[in-house]
Amino acid sequence: MDLYTCTGIQVKDGKPREITDEVCIESRFRLMVNGDEVTAMVASAEQLRELGAGFMVSEGLAEKVESVEVNGDEIRVGAEARPGGMRVLETSGGTAYVRRPPRVGAGPRIGIDDVSLMTAAIESEDWRKTGGLHCSVLFCDGTLVAKACDVGRHNTVDKVIGHAVLTGLDRSRCIIGCTGRQPAGMVAKAAHAGIPVIISRAASTDQGIATAEQAGITLICFSRGDRFTVYTHPWRVEGLAAPGEISYGD
């Protein structure tokens, strides 16, 4: 990822010194669907085809995409778009389309150690350098298949979902890992994509937890070091489900 190098004055222990820092670059793009502008996006200028495809599916605007191309500041998507959905401004400043998310299938089961391994994969060198990027990863059948960093947490999820859309992966067998917090809009992205497990290093909100419960998603937050918190559908994490608990899947 391209980074911007700048100078600054760092104060440590009360003493100033000049330093050189690498910081994130943010760019603006227009998402065009069948020739019409749907939204403007602030994003990092990488994996833009994945961003366009992922946004369409994760916001429930289409079940699949037919084409994606990038031309200058335009991400042009061809898809059979669904009508409806209330357009809202997310807490991140991004655009989301509010509609009832579908219920996901049973999907994979994972072990306690898998949660730690998948969380470790979320970090990247650019994330450590800048402290200003979010990162997401996508695992399918236990294998890391996609990774994305971006100035926006929503964008990173769209990009890894977009990878699954463009490559034809079975998303019901996938798990998303993310650095960002999980309000309702973030959880709904996984639900629309049919992804049954979310692992986040950060917190959720009451509506994020409610959305995960309703959609049948296993929501794991505060995954750091040797600890994590499972808020919904713990039966997918081996060793946590209560004896005799039945599957909530299809």
What does this structure look like?
This protein has 250 residues and is α+β, with helices and mostly antiparallel strands. It is 25% helix and 35% strand. It has 2 domains: 27-98, Ubiquitin-like (UB roll), CATH 3.10.20; 112-236, Cytidine Deaminase, domain 2 (3-Layer(aba) Sandwich). The protein has helices at residues 48-58, 112-122, 125-130, 153-167, 184-193, 206-215; strands at residues 4-12, 15-23, 27-33, 36-43, 67-71, 74-78, 86-89, 95-98, 134-140, 143-150, 174-178, 197-200, 218-224, 227-232. A hairpin with a 2-residue loop joins strand 5 (67-71) and strand 6 (74-78). The radius of gyration is 19 Å and the shape is globular. The chain starts with a strand and ends in an 18-residue tail after the last strand.
What is the secondary structure topology, with strand pairs?
Elements: E1 4-12, E2 15-23, E3 27-33, E4 36-43, H1 48-58, E5 67-71, E6 74-78, E7 86-89, E8 95-98, H2 112-122, H3 125-130, E9 134-140, E10 143-150, H4 153-167, E11 174-178, H5 184-193, E12 197-200, H6 206-215, E13 218-224, E14 227-232
Parallel strand pairs: 3-6, 11-12, 12-13
Antiparallel strand pairs: 1-2, 3-4, 5-6, 7-8, 9-10, 9-11, 13-14
Helix pairs in contact: 1-4, 1-5, 4-5, 5-6
Describe the structure in brief:
This protein is an alpha+beta fold and 250 residues long. The protein has two domains: 27-98, Ubiquitin-like (UB roll) (Roll), CATH 3.10.20.10; 112-236, Cytidine Deaminase, domain 2, CATH 3.40.140. It has six helices and 14 strands.
End-to-end distance: 40 Å
Instruction: Estimate percent helicity.
Output: 25-40%
CATH topology group of the largest domain: Cytidine Deaminase, domain 2
Please tell me the total number of domains.
2
Report the biggest beta sheet as strand number plus sense, adding barrel if it closes.
Answer: 6 strands, mixed
Question: Which architecture of the largest domain does the CATH hierarchy give at level 2?
Answer: 3-Layer(aba) Sandwich
Q: Using the alpha-carbon principal axes, give the shape.
A: globular
Strand order of the largest sheet: 10-9-11-12-13-14
Taken in chain order, the helices and strands follow as EEEEHEEEEHHEEHEHEHEE
Q: Rg, please?
A: 19 Å
CATH class of the largest domain reads Alpha Beta
Low-pLDDT runs of 5+ residues are: 85-89, 246-250
CATH superfamily of the largest domain: Cytidine Deaminase, domain 2
The fraction of residues assigned to DSSP E strands is: 35-45%
What value does the average pLDDT take? 88
How many strand elements? 14
| Number of discrete helical segments | 6
Structural class label: alpha+beta
